[in-house]
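Appendix B, Record 12. Input sequence as logged:
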Amino acid sequence: MKTLKERIFDSIKGSEWAASRREIVCRCPFCGHTSSANKKHLYISAREDKPIMYNCFKCNASGIADYKFLQLIGITDSSLIREIQSFNSEKLSENHKNIVSRDFSSYDSYDRNRRRYLSAFYSKTSYEILEKKLDYLNGRLKLQLNQTEWLAQKVLLDIGAFYKDIQRMFNASREDMDIVMREYVGFLSVDNSCISLRHIYNNDLPRWIIVNTTHKGDEAILNKAFGIPTEISNTIYISEGQFDILSIYNNLTKRAPGIYVAASGSKYTSTLEYIVEKFALMQVNLEVFFDNDEAGSNTMNFMKYYLNKFRFIYNGTIRFHINKKSKDFGVPLDEIDDYIF
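Logged structural output:
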């Protein structure tokens, strides 16, 4: 069975080994490449005791190999990306606990260049703003995750990588974009075709901004649905909102393997229909979480009617959930009373 670094090597077109196979050399996606395909300046570390990092000796772009960087160098295998993210989170926790918390002025060259070259989600947002967003997310759900761990769950504190997409879609001024960068966090959709932006401070702003990142213009069933990358099992967890599914994953199920999907409001019904039809003939258990209000009750009644059509062919268990302590599940564990039926 191939090691993680061997699979990374195989996934990068034209890559070469260096430093006794402790580094992978490839063409740099930041400095525009050179005219010759044989000239490579980007070195990716492939050690077992440290996070997977990169450094270009031509333009000095460097940083941790996170989601956006992996896409830039041509890695598209979602399972491999999740494994790299998990590996980096583990090594960051072991060896680099202060990488997010320390003052920006003392950052080493890797992190300064990572911000400079937009390596991944660290572009137009200051360190202080990122810290405020981090405090908000952890405070809302009573968690203690760092920025890398939130990114591994496809939650973006820094949405600068999508600056041009947002500006183009809304024809926004620079002043408006400064507000968006400061006041919103992002949730990438299941297929990465769009990013849902949620304001976290200012109630005068639009609560949600939905940005299509593929520019195809076609409306896919799951284009707004948010999913947390995790080990897959035969259980599907589906909720209405992003904060709901994040709390279910981190607090309620303690990160149990499964498929975790937030349907994002109006897509709730169509997402559930898609999932049930996709897995109807398989032994799959479905855990559905509803808001504890009139809208949630109406959706639940429709789901009872809809799922009844599958009673003769659906092999798994279907359970409905309501939080008796709060309106929804997007709250800390001590504010959840999970009523199951």
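Confidence is low (pLDDT under 50) at residues 95-124.
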